[in-house]
Amino acid sequence: MLAEAACELFLEQGFEATTIADISRRAGVSRSSFFNYFASKSDILWAGLDERIARFEERLEQDEAVDAAADVRAAAIALAEDFAPDSLALAERNAAAMGLEDELEREASSRRSRIARAVAARLGRAGADRLHADVAGAAWGGAVLGALEAWAHDGAGRTSLDRFAARAADVAALATRIPAPGAVRQLRMVVQAPDFDATLAFYRDVVGMPQAEAYEAEGGARVAILDAGRATLELANPGQVAFIDRVETDGGSSDRIRVAFEVDDTVGAVERLAASGARVEASARETPWRSVNARLRAPADLQVTLFQELGPA
Length: 313
Description:
Elements: H1 2-13, H2 20-27, H3 31-34, H4 43-62, H5 68-80, H6 87-93, H7 95-98, H8 101-125, H9 130-155, H10 161-173, E1 186-192, H11 196-206, E2 211-217, E3 221-227, E4 231-236, H12 238-248, E5 257-262, H13 266-275, E6 279-286, E7 291-298, E8 302-309
Parallel strand pairs: 1-4, 5-8
Antiparallel strand pairs: 1-5, 2-3, 3-4, 6-7, 7-8
Helix pairs in contact: 1-2, 4-5, 4-6, 4-8, 5-10, 6-9, 8-9, 9-10
């Protein structure tokens, strides 16, 4: 009753011009009765979603299953289940006519933040670092509110919110996965390139792999790292290969192709790989560029470097 009256008035005279007294009169209730249900006229629009967000927060706070990413996705999908078209969907679709665009954005921001905090807290308890948890939380806050807005503009009565929520969840889930302890973080192929400039030009300019980094060192050593999405191709001339061998090994030499894996803990990873059949060619050591590197001979005769980035000193 109050929601219907409010939406009618918002369409007739705009959100800002409509008072709580106007809404109460249109609904046939006293002004004091209005406050038994809502704290403000804006709350009329958000009450249904707020109840669901409260259940979402409670579910994530109590759920301590092993797969936190799956917990978050399930909770978000549950939030959207059986969500009937309501005053919020009507307001989203008619925001300009109701004079609600700025108001909806302000209020949506607070709901995105609530969802983000709940997700970040759940992932943090599961072992995600703060940056990962915060980014994933923001992704899920955007996913839920984005799905709701898309559903409203598509015509909320024509389809269910579930379909939009599932699509949004697929996107947000990409930011949610927590790598298992010891998981490889990056694959880097290191290729010795005697004709360095020509090789660099081919992979960078012809193949289309953007140059992410480039360095020079003593003895004419040069290296360029090309972006390949979730992997990189490192091109090194003979001087660079010799330089790395001096830093990373005790007199060892690199194969023409050497595979490098970024890990969280080089020492621990060396122990695991050696226990599973890899032969240690050079033990873990800190490099001048603040990584911890080790070199092994792995199955299939692959020469493997493990490296752990230490970050700024």
